[in-house]
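ok so dumb question maybe but i'm new to this and my supervisor (M.) told me to 'just get the structure for Lipoprotein' and walked off. so i did the thing. is this what she meant?? sequence i used:
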Amino acid sequence: MRGLWFLALLGLVACGPIPVERAEQQCLGRAQLAAKPRGMVSAGVNSDGDTLAGLKLEVSSDYIMGRDPSAVFDLCVQQKSGQPPTRPLYSFPEWKG
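this is what came out, is it supposed to look like this??
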């Protein structure tokens, strides 16, 4: 019984808030996907002469719903850290909106 209580407590701790700086870094990717889909196209030929092609496309529900990337970022940071972001999304050098 004591082991179950410990595991339950450990699970609650794992769901706790994270530092706001870490949340901001994690939420940048979500904001970028809200601005536009991300994808990759590949093509080539193997040693047997067969043509190969590939497509990887990542589209978020935030993009489909037309949500503002800055609002997505703010909400994400608030949910992960329990605090508002320390600065606006557009001030991050990594932001490519």
